């Protein structure tokens, strides 16, 4: 039954685009192969020639990854134009629920109102779902001569960033790092001056995992001790680089030569790595407000004790409808997002944006969900 | 004043539609059409600037209206960066920002004005002609450097150099509140403070102030200068007696031009300063000040609709400040007009 509908969809899509499509089966075959590792029924798109334009908007965190995905997807489907406007998560969700875009990128989950608005915007009454396709670990970076890595638990990090721990040889740090020769340099904390998803995730980690963080609610604005700050990731990294004794947080891909903190998870200390970042997503439960089982809206488990998981990550979602009223639009969205979720797409993003590829099982699950998206 | 009179003159020659015969007579003159065209063009250009100004003011008012009329509780509910620190309202935030803007601009002006007048005097009255010319070009070149480059240069090169100097200031002049250290006894370890922003802004406005004052000093009537010298004045006395009184209004005008740029400067402050919102006088501590323009640049990218409205209210505040500064400058210049030139 399902296969029959898909074949039908494929046929009509092929008919739709027949006149425009320049047949290029050779460059078509290879990339789709890697994207369809998940299931047999998604083999169908191989025959599909897509055309048209796909419009999305949302989180700026995904911007450079989206650039890579756009280029990769358009390389496979020369007749397709994908555009993504990095207006910010909130703006992206609004444009999506207004029906102005086909998909949205968002660092935060939709709230109830937005879920309801999405039901209006999407065809049918199944609304929209989140797909976690961009995982980026956030590193706590510091600048101390001769020290590349330090172990810290959440309370220590919170203590540093709320101004309680002011010197690098403080007992709280020394206890966890018996082997490191800590200088008595004063600690200079560096945070983002602008509102940002990195700040939000960093503070969310501290709110949930630390007992001594002053704020109770997560915010994209800085809530810790006022210290040095700079606009954007580059500025924060620059300030930490220029000042011995400085500590800040930034996209892990930007940590470069700076020292990084290994977080205490359970009884061990986990340095950030792509696998560790993907592991925490797999170990997290779905949000209670999720829209059915297809809605992969994770409630990130910052206090996870899963071995080898790195809980300080930024997860950015791609939000799509469960049903589109237009078959061509549906095909564009699902094919594009399938490419994004594929191993190839995730690796592209990893090399372009320094994100961590999602796990193979999550990728498979996402592709399965995308295959179920209907056109009304 | 002058422009008004001049415009009035232009319109009087144009407006009364001259008797038919006259018009015909003129229109046979080969330059008549061009004359009328040019008059129309320049009147149009003058009108355009007024229209633009009015349009900007209207835009600011309309866009800022929702934020200005909303109750402060309602607004900080929708705009989460309002009231994050101590529950400050929009008005209080604007207060902090106006203070920061004025403070940093004042630092910049305090540094830049004497330096610029010195440079201008050197170029106009001390340097050999050839050196003066070269120097003049260089100063003009400084004005052409984009502010984002100044910002980067300030953040990466200047600040690390200045930081030890700040520690020195704190050690020996720390009893002056301006240079006081934070509670933990140290000044900012990175140098991302108001004084740094002020210094880089000063470097940015020096070319403007210098260029204008240099031109004014060069206009000093040679007769006045020679008269002063003939009466036995030294060169410095001659400058005091002849050049400064003649150029006073020009110097004030130049300073105000510089102040205008300093008030509105965005990128340099944005990249150099660790921002904060307080009324503190401590210009060597981080997270104490911010300027309106830099704050807008910082918050705009992620601002929602109400946020944008609140930011535009801040823009309106900056607009008003600049307007006041210019009016003050005009007033000072007109008051001093009696001492100008000829007497």
UniProtKB/TrEMBL annotation, chain A:
GO molecular-function term, one example from the UniProt record: phosphate ion binding
Species for this entry: Demequina activiva
Name of the protein in question: Phosphate-binding protein
Keyword Transport assigned: yes
Disordered: annotated segments: 23-47
Domain named PBP: residues: 51-343
Any Gene Ontology biological process: phosphate ion transmembrane transport
Coiled-coil ranges (or none): none
Family: Belongs to the PstS family.
Gene3D superfamilies, sorted: Periplasmic binding protein-like II (3.40.190.10)
Sorted UniProt keywords: Phosphate transport, Signal, Transport
PANTHER family: PHOSPHATE-BINDING PROTEIN PSTS
CDD domains linked to this entry: PBP2_PstS
Any one GO cellular component localisation term in the record: ATP-binding cassette (ABC) transporter complex
Signal sequence annotation: 1-21
């Amino acid at each position: 039954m399902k296969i029959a509908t898909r074949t039908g969809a494929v046929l009509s899509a092929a008919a739709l685009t027949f006149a425009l499509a320049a047949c290029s089966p050779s460059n078509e075959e290879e990339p789709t192969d890697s994207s369809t590792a998940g299931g047999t029924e998604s083999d169908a798109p191989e025959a599909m020639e897509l055309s048209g334009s796909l419009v999305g908007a949302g989180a700026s965190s995904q911007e450079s990854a989206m650039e890579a995905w756009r280029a990769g997807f358009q390389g496979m489907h020369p007749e397709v134009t994908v555009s993504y406007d990095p207006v910010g998560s909130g703006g992206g969700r609004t444009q999506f629920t207004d029906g102005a875009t086909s998909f949205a990128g968002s660092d935060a989950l939709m709230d109830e109102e937005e879920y309801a608005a999405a039901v209006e915007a999407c065809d049918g009454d199944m609304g929209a779902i989140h797909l976690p396709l961009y995982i980026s670990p956030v590193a706590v970076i510091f600048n101390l001569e001769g020290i590349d890595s330090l172990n810290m638990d959440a309370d220590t990090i919170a203590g540093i960033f709320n101004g309680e721990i002011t010197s690098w040889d403080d007992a709280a740090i020394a206890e966890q790092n018996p082997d490191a020769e800590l200088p008595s340099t004063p600690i200079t904390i560096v945070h983002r001056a602008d509102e940002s998803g990195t700040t939000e995730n960093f503070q969310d980690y501290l709110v949930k995992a630390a007992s001594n963080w002053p704020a109770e609610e997560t915010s994209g604005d800085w809530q810790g001790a006022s210290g040095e700050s700079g606009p954007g990731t580059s500025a924060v990294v620059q300030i930490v680089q220029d000042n011995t004794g400085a500590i800040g947080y930034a996209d892990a891909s930007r940590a470069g030569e700076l020292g990084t903190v290994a977080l205490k998870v359970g009884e061990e200390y986990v340095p950030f790595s792509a696998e560790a970042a993907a592991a925490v997503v797999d170990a997290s439960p779905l949000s209670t407000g999720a829209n059915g089982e297809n809605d992969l809206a994770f409630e990130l488990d910052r206090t996870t004790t899963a071995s080898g998981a790195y809980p300080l990550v930024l997860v950015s979602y791609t939000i799509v409808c469960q049903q589109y009223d237009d078959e061509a639009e549906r095909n564009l969205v699902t094919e594009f997002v399938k490419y994004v979720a594929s191993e190839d797409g995730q690796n592209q993003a990893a090399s372009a944006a320094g994100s961590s590829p999602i796990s193979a099982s999550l990728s498979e699950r996402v592709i399965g969900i995308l295959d179920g998206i209907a056109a009304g | 004043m002058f422009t008004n009179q001049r415009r009035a003159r232009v319109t009087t020659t144009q407006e009364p539609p001259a008797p038919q015969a006259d018009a015909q007579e003129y229109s046979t003159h080969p330059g008549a059409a061009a004359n009328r065209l040019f008059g129309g063009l320049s009147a149009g250009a003058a009108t355009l600037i007024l229209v633009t100004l009015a349009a900007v003011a209207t835009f600011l008012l309309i866009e800022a209206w929702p934020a200005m009329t909303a109750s402060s509780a309602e607004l900080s509910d929708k705009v989460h960066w309002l009231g994050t620190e101590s529950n400050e309202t929009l008005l209080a935030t604007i207060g902090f920002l106006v203070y920061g803007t004025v403070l940093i601009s004042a630092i910049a002006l305090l540094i830049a004005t004497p330096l610029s007048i010195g440079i201008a005097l050197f170029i106009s009255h001390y340097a050999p002609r050839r050196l003066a010319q070269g120097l003049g070009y260089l100063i003009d070149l400084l004005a052409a450097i984009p502010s984002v480059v100044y910002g980067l240069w300030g953040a990466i090169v200047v600040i690390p150099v200045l930081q030890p100097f700040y520690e020195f200031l704190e050690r020996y002049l720390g009893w002056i509140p301006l240079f006081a250290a934070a509670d933990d006894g140290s000044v900012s370890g990175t140098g991302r403070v108001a004084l740094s922003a002020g210094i880089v802004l000063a470097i940015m406005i020096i070319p403007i102030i210098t260029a204008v004052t240099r031109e004014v000093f060069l206009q000093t009537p040679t007769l006045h200068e020679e008269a002063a010298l003939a009466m036995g004045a030294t060169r410095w006395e001659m400058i005091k007696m002849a050049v400064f009184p003649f150029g006073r209004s020009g110097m004030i005008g130049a300073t105000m031009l510089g102040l205008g740029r300093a008030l509105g400067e965005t990128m340099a402050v944005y990249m150099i300063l660790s921002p904060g919102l307080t009324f503190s006088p401590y210009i060597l501590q981080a997270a104490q000040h911010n300027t309106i323009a830099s704050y807008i640049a910082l918050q705009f990218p992620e601002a929602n609709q109400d946020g944008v409205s609140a930011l535009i209210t801040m823009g309106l505040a900056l607009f008003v400040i600049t307007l006041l500064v210019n009016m003050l400058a005009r007033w000072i210049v007109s008051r001093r007009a009696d001492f100008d030139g000829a007497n």
